[in-house]
Amino acid sequence: MSPEQWESLCDGCGKCCLHKLQDEEDDGTLGAIHNTSVACRLLDLGSCQCSDYANRWDFVPDCVQLYPGAIGRMGWLPPTCAYRLVHSGKDLEWWHPLVSGNADSVHEAGMSVRGRAISERKAGPLEHHLVDWPDL
After folding, report:
1. Is 72 helix (H, G, I), strand (E, B) or coil?
2. Residues 6+ positions from 29 with CB-CB distance below 8 Å
3. Can you give the residue range of the structural domain that contains 79?
4. Is 55 exposed, middle or buried (0-12, 13-18, 19+ CB in 10 A)?
5. For residue range 61-99, what is the model confidence (pLDDT) as tens digits?
6. How many domains are there within the chain?
């Protein structure tokens, strides 16, 4: 798969741009991951796209690069994530823009963070924004 084809798998949901909290167990190991509705400051909450994708590491040094060899280790990716689905040999969802032919179908299906997320610039403590959305 070419880099362009790989990038085209992104459905534009914005879920991977939401902050997560992870428990630390008594023995120092990492535990459960808790989802929040707080989005990275670069996420455009209307389009659910990064507002400066090409330069994102200049502003968010810990932004995660999704690449084929790492998807299996990224258990925090939502079950609807196209990268995760392809990695598992599953079909893309009907609302994925590559299937529907419509870039807005992810939003129309209610599968993006549009209308559900808040920018980290306005959120305050992450603990105040824990969510248990079924699509995360």
Report:
1. helix
2. none
3. 3-129
4. exposed
5. 999 989 899 999 998 999 999 999 999 999 999 999 999
6. 1
Task: Record the pTM.
Answer: 0.90
Token pair for 52: 């400066």
Q: How far is CA 68 from the centre of its chain?
A: 15
Residue 135 falls inside a structural domain: no
Considering the domain boundaries, does residue 136 fall inside one? Answer: no
In a domain, 94, yes or no: yes
CB 52 within 8 A of CB 4: no
Length of the chain: 136
* 79 lies in some domain: yes
Strand order in the sheet with 118-119: 18-24, 30-39, 118-119
Do the Cβ atoms of 26 and 108 come closer than 8 Å? no
C-beta separation of 16 from 112 below 8 A: no
DSSP secondary structure letter of residue 5: H
* 3-class SS shares of the chain: helix, strand, coil, % to 5: 30, 20, 50
Per-residue pLDDT tens for 26-69? 676 677 899 999 999 999 999 999 999 999 999 999 999 898 99
